[in-house]
Amino acid sequence: MKRLGTVLHVIHNGELIVQCNGMMKDTWLNAVVLSEDLKRLGKVVDIFGPVSRPYCSIKPFKGSKPRMHELKERMIYIK
What we know:
It is a single chain. It is built from no helices and six strands. It has about 80 residues and is an all-beta fold. The protein has a six-stranded antiparallel barrel.
């Protein structure tokens, strides 16, 4: 398990915008994202922004949308 980054925004459809901790890899697309308590949240669907400090978009799994607003400014992880 690796640190992905900090949740910056929760979009109305439940998607998360995350500021990543370091350089992202293309292989992280579609990777499973976990919360601090190891619950599956969703998957990485897009990587954008500067190479040195990118952002990514997380699409939630069904059933995890209600919990997304609790994640703002918290660290999330990638499996």
